[in-house]
């Protein structure tokens, strides 16, 4: 059944519940491993922050639950207050039946209250968010801790919104361990899948029959070895009342073996509760007319000012100041998923014959960083690289100063950087998949409609063709300015996305009340 048909049926179900007619305020608890600005490794953290703020602005009581990592220090950037001491979180292990935690709180200026689960062993002593052999234990503790926190009565939500494999096991706990709990059994659950590529602390593509987890058995005891071999994402898909992923196209792609990461058959079975919602962009924080990190502010009416950022970007990365050179940028982590290797191979051909400069910012895979250094050595006056993480002004200069940005991903659930680039007038060249397909429309030179350039096949010829097309369009300034204005005018605001999530929350409540078995809705 098509996604729009499913939404229609779900909305019809919702209208059958009298108390859900209209958009009544809801109490929502977001549970995640990382949330900006407290801990931010990737786009996941930004989504939780901005979605929470957008929902709060619409009148909902939105709160966040996350770990209290050691680097979130009291009295420095955030002033945290202890609200619960000695929270006993069950382990299901008779030898050590409880782990003792505290809960602290911080209220943001946007009115979103953030709760922190504090535990010395699993969070306080860790220097990083991810990368530990007991990560499965840490996230199961977070999930179970959130439920025990709710049971204290301090905040009882209507909806628990979990994110990715880390907290998707919470949906299993609610369904199995707290089925008869007077507080928790009336709370609906939503799971957002940000990426199918991670499902737990094991390689889900190569798992033995002995270690295979079908999700039907109980969650293993927190301190057991077995928990490291359980597929948290599978369990979340099975037991959440509603599922979302971060773009409509990706919601369709994950139903196929190519993108479903061995869970495509399960997702096909429960597709009636799966909805794709594109991520949003905070138009206040990302605004070229007010951004203090730019060399020169500009907007859609003052595009000539933009060139000052191009000069600043060229200077920052050691390139000659050339207004007539097409500056092609790539921003983000160095990763095979992002197609960095394809970009490097293709740019080697482009740089030989065209008046083009290539700039890169972002760290990650050491092998890809070495390839970038090789490209720089080959074209020292045409290539400027910074193959390291950068959280200062370089990303904003990239948005405001590059003419084009590349997104040749192997797969892309959503992606946020292409939206940020468009907001600043940098034209995206994207592969036509996932969220890239949903957020960028192909430019038509005749009708002058469209916001970027797109290609289909993951190879050098396809990407090369669109870069050459960008070079040609760049020579026709009036046409190029039209393309820039189209891109900058696109509305990716989170307020629109929040409305979509309101519908999902209502659907989750309707399905939960109708007690559909294991979260699988039969609409036929």
Automatic annotation (TrEMBL):
<keyword id="KW-0328">Glycosyltransferase</keyword>
<comment type="pathway">
    <text>Glycan biosynthesis; glycogen biosynthesis.</text>
</comment>
<comment type="similarity">
    <text>Belongs to the glycosyltransferase 1 family. Bacterial/plant glycogen synthase subfamily.</text>
</comment>
<dbReference type="Pfam" id="PF00534">
    <property type="entry name" value="Glycos_transf_1"/>
</dbReference>
<dbReference type="InterPro" id="IPR011835">
    <property type="entry name" value="GS/SS"/>
</dbReference>
<keyword id="KW-0320">Glycogen biosynthesis</keyword>
<dbReference type="GO" id="GO:0004373">
    <property type="term" value="F:alpha-1,4-glucan glucosyltransferase (UDP-glucose donor) activity"/>
</dbReference>
<dbReference type="Pfam" id="PF08323">
    <property type="entry name" value="Glyco_transf_5"/>
</dbReference>
<feature type="domain" description="Starch synthase catalytic">
    <location>
        <begin position="27"/>
        <end position="267"/>
    </location>
</feature>
<protein>
    <recommendedName>
        <fullName>Glycogen synthase</fullName>
        <ecNumber>2.4.1.21</ecNumber>
    </recommendedName>
</protein>
<keyword id="KW-0808">Transferase</keyword>
<feature type="domain" description="Glycosyl transferase family 1">
    <location>
        <begin position="320"/>
        <end position="444"/>
    </location>
</feature>
<dbReference type="GO" id="GO:0009011">
    <property type="term" value="F:alpha-1,4-glucan glucosyltransferase (ADP-glucose donor) activity"/>
</dbReference>
<dbReference type="GO" id="GO:0005978">
    <property type="term" value="P:glycogen biosynthetic process"/>
</dbReference>
<comment type="function">
    <text>Synthesizes alpha-1,4-glucan chains using ADP-glucose.</text>
</comment>
<dbReference type="InterPro" id="IPR013534">
    <property type="entry name" value="Starch_synth_cat_dom"/>
</dbReference>
<dbReference type="InterPro" id="IPR001296">
    <property type="entry name" value="Glyco_trans_1"/>
</dbReference>
């Amino acid at each position: 059944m098509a996604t729009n048909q499913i939404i229609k049926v779900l909305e019809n179900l919702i209208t059958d519940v009298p108390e859900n007619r209209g958009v009544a305020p809801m109490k929502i608890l977001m549970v995640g491993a990382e949330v900006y600005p407290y801990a931010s490794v990737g786009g996941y953290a930004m989504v939780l922050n901005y979605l929470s703020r957008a929902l709060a602005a619409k009148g909902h009581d939105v709160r966040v639950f996350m770990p209290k990592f050691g680097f979130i220090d009291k009295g420095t950037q955030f002033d945290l207050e202890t609200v619960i001491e000695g929270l006993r979180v069950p382990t299901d292990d008779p030898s050590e039946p409880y782990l003792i935690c505290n809960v602290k709180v911080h209220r943001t200026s946007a009115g979103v209250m953030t709760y922190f689960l504090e535990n010395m062993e699993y969070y306080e002593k860790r220097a990083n968010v991810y990368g530990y052999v007991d990560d499965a234990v840490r996230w199961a503790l977070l999930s179970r801790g959130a439920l025990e926190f709710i049971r204290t009565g301090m905040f009882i939500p209507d909806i628990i919104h979990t994110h990715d494999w880390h907290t998707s096991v919470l949906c299993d706990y609610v369904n199995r361990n707290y089925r008869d709990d007077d507080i928790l059994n009336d709370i609906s659950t939503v799971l957002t899948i940000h990426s199918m590529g991670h499902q737990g602390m094991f390689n889900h593509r190569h798992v033995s029959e002995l270690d295979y987890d079908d999700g039907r058995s109980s969650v293993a005891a927190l301190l057991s070895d077995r928990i490291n071999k359980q597929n948290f994402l599978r369990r979340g898909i099975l037991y959440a009342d509603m599922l979302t992923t971060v773009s409509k196209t990706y919601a369709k792609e994950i139903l196929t073996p190519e993108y479903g990461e061995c869970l495509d058959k399960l997702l096909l079975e429960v597709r009636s509760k799966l909805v794709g919602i594109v991520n949003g962009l905070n138009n206040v924080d990302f605004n070229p007319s007010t951004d203090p990190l730019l060399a020169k502010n500009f907007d859609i009416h003052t595009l000539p000012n933009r060139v000052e950022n191009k000069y600043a970007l060229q200077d920052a990365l050691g390139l000659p100041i050339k207004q007539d050179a097409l500056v092609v940028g790539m921003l983000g982590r160095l990763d095979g998923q992002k197609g960095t290797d394809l970009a490097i191979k293709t740019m080697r051909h482009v740089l030989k014959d065209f008046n083009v400069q290539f700039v890169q910012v972002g760290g990650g895979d050491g092998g890809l960083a070495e390839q970038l250094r090789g490209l720089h050595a080959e074209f020292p006056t045409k290539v400027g690289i910074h193959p390291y993480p950068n959280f200062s002004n370089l990303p904003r200069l990239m948005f405001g100063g590059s003419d084009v940005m590349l997104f040749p991903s192997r797969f892309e659930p959503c992606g946020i950087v292409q939206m940020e680039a468009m907001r600043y007038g940098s034209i995206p060249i994207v592969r036509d998949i996932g969220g890239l397909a949903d957020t960028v429309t192909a430019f038509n030179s005749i009708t002058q409609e469209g916001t970027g350039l797109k290609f289909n096949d993951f190879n050098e010829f396809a990407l090369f063709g669109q870069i050459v097309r960008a070079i040609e369009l760049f020579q026709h300034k009036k046409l190029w300015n039209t393309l820039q204005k189209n891109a900058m005018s696109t509305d990716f605001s989170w307020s629109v996305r929040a409305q979509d999530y309101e519908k999902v929350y209502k659907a989750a409540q309707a399905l939960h009340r109708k007690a559909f078995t294991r979260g699988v809705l039969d609409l036929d």
